[in-house]
Amino acid sequence: QAKARGRNGYSFYAPSMTGEGVERLRLETFLRRSIEKEEIFLNYQPQVQIDTGRLVGVEALVRWNHPELGLIPPIRFIPLAEDTGFINQLGKWVLHEACRQMVRWQEAGLHVPKIAVNLSAKQFERGSIVNMVADILRETGLEPQRLQLEVTESVIMNTGDAMVFINDLHSIGVALAIDDFGTGYSSLAYLKQLPVQTLKIDRSFIKDISTDVNDEAIAIAIIQLGKSMNLSVIAEGVETEEQAGFLLRHGCNLAQGYYYSRPLTAGDMLARWQK
Ligand code: C2E
Ligand code: MG
Ligand code: MG
Ligand code: MG
């Protein structure tokens, strides 16, 4: 199978290209113009206290609605954006929009304590991430403590200067969470050195928490680890009352998942949570 795209993003038709390759190329071309065409938007998934149901934050989740292809899930276009370098533009747009939305909600009378934004490894390779975040915070006026950046274990372990960037981000007051915790290859020694505030228990451990003894053991271990390292622990993908009950009994009082709310538009967030 011919590789049809150069590193510079220049593309051409290669006769040997498979249907899948053509599809990918088409998606790439569309993706590059998605921001200017205003096809990209954010959804926000509430994060709540299990015992009180109180809103403690939201996670910003990027969405792409293409006029012909419809809604394309991030698992399909984030990897593409990473490969083509478009992730830098996209990541910046997401961060800016997320911070601005926090200020808009505030002005509309909805106080969302904190917003979590996902970062991809490729954004760390750029080097300028700390300046970008600082600029956006200044432009939007959002307090740094109300922004939490989410990175996965593999970002920390495989990105050369991630430790430096993470320390720099911490120094400007931004909070950090480790996403999908427990699924990656990570070193607990690193965890101890990093200014991380939050561990997010991956959804895969929560899914069968009341039936699979291994998942149960892993979830409990992560909760204990968080406790002993003075980190907050939030469970992802909580879909049932049983899962929520299990978490609470084992000392995890923070959750995010369909049981509480699906990711919402900015307007629906306001409608649902505004007093
Ligand atoms: P993630 O950061 O782990 O986000 C959580 C994902 O789980 C979201 O999928 C969310 O909709 C989904 N989810 C939440 N609660 C439940 C539940 O109860 N059950 C189930 N089955 N799923 C639940 P989504 O929005 O499709 O995003 C998938 C992944 O795409 C994210 O995983 C994140 O890694 C990536 N992503 C999303 N937005 C961005 C972004 O702005 N930048 C970057 N770099 N990555 C993003
Ligand atoms: Mg996340
Ligand atoms: Mg996650
Ligand atoms: Mg995930």
Question: Which helices and strands, and how do they pair?
Answer:
Elements: H1 19-32, E1 40-49, E2 55-66, E3 70-72, H2 74-84, H3 87-107, E4 115-118, H4 121-125, H5 129-140, E5 147-152, H6 153-158, H7 162-171, E6 175-181, H8 188-193, E7 198-201, H9 203-207, H10 213-228, E8 232-235, H11 241-249, E9 254-255, H12 266-273
Parallel strand pairs: 2-4, 4-5, 5-6, 6-7, 7-8, 8-9
Antiparallel strand pairs: 1-2, 1-9, 2-3
Helix pairs in contact: 1-2, 3-5
Bound molecules: ligand C2E and magnesium ion (3 copies).
One magnesium ion binds at residues 59, 118, 150, 179.
Please, could you describe this protein's structure?
This protein is 45% helix and 19% strand. It has 275 residues and is an alpha/beta fold. It has an 8-stranded mixed barrel, surrounded by 5 helices. A hairpin with a 3-residue loop joins strand 2 (55-66) and strand 3 (70-72). Helix 1 packs across helix 2 (74-84) and helix 3 (87-107) runs parallel beside helix 5 (129-140). The termini are far apart. Ligand C2E is lined by residues 45, 61-62, 73-75, 78, 94, 118-120, 150, 179-180, 203, 236-239, 257-258, 263.
How do the strands of the widest beta sheet line up side by side?
A: 1-2-4-5-6-7-8-9
Secondary structure: helix percent = 40-55%
Helix count, DSSP H or I runs of 4 or more residues: 12
Order of helices and strands: HEEEHHEHHEHHEHEHHEHEH
Give the names of the bound compounds.
ligand C2E, magnesium ion
State the separation between the terminal residues, measured CA to CA.
Answer: 57 Å
Low-confidence stretches: 1-11
Q: Outline the biggest β-sheet.
A: 8 strands, mixed, barrel
Total beta strands: 9
Q: What general form does the structure show?
A: globular
Mean pLDDT: 91
Q: What fraction of the residues are assigned to beta strands by DSSP?
A: 15-25%
What structural class do helix, strand and pairing data support?
alpha/beta
Cα-atom radius of gyration:
19 Å
Organism: Duganella callida
Domain EAL: 24-275
Protein name: EAL domain-containing protein
